[in-house]
Amino acid sequence: MTGVPASATGGSGRPAPGGKLGAAAVNQASLWNIANLLTMLRLVLVPGFVALMLADGGYDPVWRAWAWAAFAVAMITDVFDGHLARTYNLVTDFGKIADPIADKAIMGAALVCLSSLGDLPWWVTGVILGRELGITLLRFWVIRYGVIPASRGGKIKTLAQGTAVGMYVLALTGPLATFRFWVMAVAVALTVLTGLDYVKQAVVLRRQGMSAERASSDERGAAAKQ
User: Fold this and answer.
1) What's the whole-model pTM score?
2) How far, in Å, CA of 191 to CA of 198, rounded?
3) CA angle 27, 33, 35 (to 5 degrees)
4) Neighbours of 42 (CB within 10 A)
5) What is the number of alpha carbons within 13 Å of residue 86 lying toward its C-beta?
6) Distances from the Cα of 24 to the Cαs of 16, 27, 44, 150, in angstroms?
């Protein structure tokens, strides 16, 4: 006996392509696509990055260089996994959930490590992480009415944050250390401005959605009276 129900084998003893086992196999295969594997790699890199960042007290230039390499790989895979998923139709429920978690995890780990080592003021970490948390809550607030697409400003903000944090991860000195301060200042400014723009778009989307619901409800009420 194979242990496979006849309904799933089509009566031939072999799993039918359209049977439950066949569907499960397809779903399992879709999970292990290249886009999801890159997302998983970013999640695995988070604890590795923290270990490298804090090795030998967190101030050794060599360990910081290795930490930067891990951070850079995470940022690069962030670009490619989303592009691959959209281009080759590899979007999965796992990817939708894990991708933003991986983004925030590596960035949050870097910011917290830098602030705990005294390299970056805690208020900078608070502004960036607070913005990301606030935007996540806003997404849930308006998800009933639609999704706000990523803007060009948001993409530039992400690039600025990644560049600035990466420069702080490296043990830079001299003019480069001064330059990274201004790169971070730009990143913080973009973080605030794009966050405010997102709030504005979320409020507009919610108002439009509520107006459409009221109009639809009024139409149904009028139709019921006729």
Assistant:
1) 0.77
2) 11
3) 125
4) 24
5) 6
6) 12, 5, 26, 33
